[in-house]
User: What shape does this take?
Amino acid sequence: MPPDPTHLRWPPALSTRPDGSVAFATVAQDSDEEIRRGLAMACELRPGQLDWDPDLGVPDPLGSTDPDLAADLIQAALTDLEPRAAIVVDVRDSDNGRSIHPRILTS
Assistant: This one.
């Protein structure tokens, strides 16, 4: 039976194998960690920033003066990018103003 597929961990990291050699750290495909790390990477990118995947990324929340609209755009982008997770983006009021809080719900 072939091993389960893995992906490079994001952000990149090194891990030491039992034999003392060093390799890039990986995460199991379809694991909660892989889903969360993929979404975290997408949050660091804006659409069109990568030539090889122009759809990857989320709109810049600072580009909107309406936090509710920004939260809706971010939730829609993340939901389109990652159908394996339920994503909820809330806007919360505090003494410092309104802020956007994404939550990623996986298995």
In short: The mean pLDDT is 86. DSSP finds two helices and six strands in the chain. The beta strands are 6-8, 14-16, 22-24, 26-28, 86-94, 97-105. The longest strand covers residues 86-94.
